[in-house]
Structure formats: structure tokens, C-alpha cells
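Weekly structure sync, notes
Attendees: PL, DS, HV (note-taker this week)

Item 1: SigE family RNA polymerase sigma factor
DS walked through the input record. Source organism listed as Catenulispora yoronensis. Sequence as pasted into the shared doc:
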Amino acid sequence: MARAERDAEFSEYLRARSAWLCRVAYLLCGDWHRADDLAQTAAVRLYRQWPRASRAENIDAYARRTLVNVFLSEQQSGWFRFAFPHRTPIEREAPALDADVSLDLRAALERLAPRQRATVVLRYYCDLSVAQTAEILGCSEGNVKSQTSRALATLRTLLAPATAAELEGITG
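Item 1 (cont.): predicted structure, written out as C-alpha cells:
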């Protein structure tokens, strides 16, 4: 494949899927600035591997796996803690959803461990099977099931409505 042809094909793919990559990255990290950086890093890696990626059965799956690998790699290195101290959020137009529920869910997702967050995003946002998620994360299906179970239990606890006793403690 000629370089110009390869570049045009890659550019077309990225133009069509960059917003999707950023949304997935945001769900993984919870910060739009960092999500943009993760998506850009994943795009660079995807470009380097484009001859192989373009022959993949599912290019989106290849790109998603690249993005998750970038995210997990940064989490393990701890680099992001120094590179992204405290930023103001980017203003984005939100879909017509219950804002309180959406904010609560995002805050709860941020409190999950990185691999648990990645598992939940891949399973429920990207709608992947246990086997597909295991392949992307490079672990066993049993590990995906246990990570998902623990993550959902944590989310249920974090998102449980306040009991009357808790509310009395706040107001009394």
C-alpha cells in the first residue's frame, strides 16, 4: 500500500471515529483533557500499526484495544498523576439525560480501580462480551467476570440512595 493511500485511509477512519474514541477514553479516565490525550496517543499508535490494523476483521476493536492499553499503561506508570494535576473541565454539550444521575455515575466510575473501570466500560458501554473483553485486557474470562462483579458491587454501594438515618445525620 502506497504511503499516500495509507495516510488517506487512516485519516478517513480517524475522522469518522475520533469522537467515539474520545468518549470511550473519557469513560476510562473521567477527564476530557486526559481523554483527548489518551485518544491522541492511541491514534499515533494506531497509525504506526495501520497496515496491520486496516487488515483486522474489526478495526474499531483494534482501536479500542489500543486505547485501553494506552490507558492501563499510563495508570501503571503513574505518569498521569504528575502530568494532569488539576484542570478545569472542558465545556461539552451534554445529551438530554438526567444530569444528576450522569454526574453521580461518572463520579462513581472514577472511584473504581483502573482495570475494573476498563472492564465496566468495555462490557457495558462498548457492549462487548466477556470473551472479547478478556482478549482486549489480556486476561482470562474468569478475571473479567470477577472484575465486573466487584466493580458492579462497588457501583451499587456508591450509587445506593441515602437511607433515612443517613439523611437525618446530614440535616440533624
